[in-house]
Amino acid sequence: MTKNVHVGFISIMFILLLLAACFAGCTGSTQDQTTATTAPTGVATPAATSGEKVQVKVFLAGSLTGPFEKIKAKFEEKYPGTEVQLEPAGSVECIKKVTDNKKPADVVASADYALIPQYMVPNDADWYLTFAKNSMVLTYADKSKYASEINSDNWYKILAKDDVRWAFSDPNADPCGYRTPMVIKLAESKYGDNTIFKTLVEDHSKITATKTGNVWTLDATNPSPDGTSLTIRPKSVELVQMVQAGGIDYAWEYHSVAVQNNLKFIELPEEIALSAVKYADNYKTVQTKAVKGNGTTNYVGSPIVYGVTVPRIAEHPDMGLAFVEMLIGPEGQAILAADGQPPIVPADAFGAVPASLDSLVNKQA
């Protein structure tokens, strides 16, 4: 009888061990299934094994800093295994980091979309999107000289005063910089005064204007401002603090930069603000000649449209693509609109655009 009890006890223990093993196996399967269904579709879960955050590098035009900081926060919340590193600079500089210096970036966003097909496609990028618009404005602060007098009709007369200091960014490094001379030259026909460019630019720098046919070429390859009336800095966003601190009275910026930094600004007529497609033919009557590598290039006047791509050299192209998807999706659109940069909805797409973006873009030939 003792032997039978002992055998029965062993049998019961064996059954219990089997049940425990089965339960553990079932629990593990359920956990694996849950993880699989919650992972982002089409995007690898970052840092799943190492525990270290994936560095998503974004090279961006300085004028995009405000909205991209907000998108960065939302992106890191959605993908907690990532850390977005924003590197703002002039758009030309951003692109040259990739094309010339071979510095990896997961996203490149330019204030002039045309720079991407001009410099990056096809060797450094396969596709790009146009996702937002902007316009040129003249910014100032309450402490700026003649702040109570300046308006959209007399701004060029105010800038010409001997005691006024004003600035724009480097035409050889920043789209806002090569667009500023265009605006000033276009102003001559709008206001019926063919001395505006000479008075404001040529008399205070080595930037010159020559006409061939119906097109004015503004040579800014060696700008050399006098530093007294006219100042030129590498990036337009550097001028914001100078205006706020009173170091200069006026600075040429994008509408979005003025809105994001609570600067006062002069809204310019559409004919010269580089803001309206209907005036594209007028805009292209001016072009700025600037340094490109060991040579030069001409930037032709056109409506201000922003572009974005994921470079071939990207270290984390899947996360770069996810960032672009958020940028052109509802969250990004709302942020851009609030920051004074009207989004293009849907974004226009060019080249071999990834299929994951198909529902968010309008493919162009």
Descriptive overview:
This protein is an alpha/beta fold and 365 residues long. It folds into 2 domains: 140 residues, Periplasmic binding protein-like II (D-Maltodextrin-Binding Protein, domain 2, 3-Layer(aba) Sandwich); 165 residues, Periplasmic binding protein-like II (D-Maltodextrin-Binding Protein, domain 2, 3-Layer(aba) Sandwich). It is 37% helix and 24% strand. The chain has 13 helices and 16 strands. The strands form 3 sheets. A 7-stranded mixed beta sheet has the order 2-1-3-14-4-15-16. A 5-stranded mixed beta sheet has the order 9-6-10-5-11, with helices on both faces. Strands 7-8-12-13 form a 4-stranded mixed beta sheet, covered by helices on one side. A hairpin with a 2-residue loop joins β12 and β13. α2 runs antiparallel to α13.
Number of strands: 16
Averaged pLDDT, please?
A: 89
Regarding CATH, which class of the largest domain?
Alpha Beta
Distance between the termini: 90 Å
Outline, from the CA principal axes? globular
Helical segment count: 13
The largest pleated sheet is described as:
7 strands, mixed
Q: What is the CATH architecture term of the largest domain?
A: 3-Layer(aba) Sandwich
Rg estimate, integer Å: 28 Å
Q: Give me the strand/helix succession.
A: HEHEHEHEEHEHHEEEHEHEHHEEEHHEE
Instruction: Note the beta-strand portion.
Output: 15-25%
The CATH homologous superfamily of the largest domain is named: Periplasmic binding protein-like II
Helix content: 25-40%
Instruction: Name the strands of the widest sheet in spatial order.
Output: 2-1-3-14-4-15-16
Residue stretches low in confidence (pLDDT < 50, at least 5 long) are: 1-41
Number of domains: 2
* CATH topology (level 3) name of the largest domain: D-Maltodextrin-Binding Protein, domain 2
Structural class: alpha/beta
